[in-house]
Amino acid sequence: MIEVLVSLLVIVVGVLGMVGLQSKAIPYTQDSAQRNTAIMLADDLVELIRSNPNCATLGSCQKLPGASFPGAPAACIPTPTSFNDQVGCWAVQAGNALPGASTLLTSGFYVCNSTTPGDVTTTSCGAGSEIEIQLSWTVKTAGDCMDPLNSSTTCTYKIRTRL
User: What is the pTM of this model?
Assistant: First the structure.
């Protein structure tokens, strides 16, 4: 009888451990999927910028924090020929793909050239040959971003690259 109780106790402890792991796995999986979406969207935007010859100096391709993206045309299929229309379609896609991003397109997204990471203010972009892109989305609970430096409900993804 004691052997049965001990084995039952061992099984219960094991099952509770698996339940605890499962409760942690769900937010990690959600964060991973959202970061993967942000990575793909940032890559799409970088390729849009690279395909536009007027963006060589990046002057016409910057979007400051607090500024709006160009408006999307009535239809994004087929792909518009105008760069601003393409970026407008991209912004609509980003707003739909990431949770809460549609409300953060103005304040949480930017496209700036910079020489050092974070060389961006609400009124100006830095100077330099590298481009920095930030995308943002919201999560339900503070700390769900899986970023130890971020304790808010707004997650960010930044990428820096040369054109």
Answer: 0.83
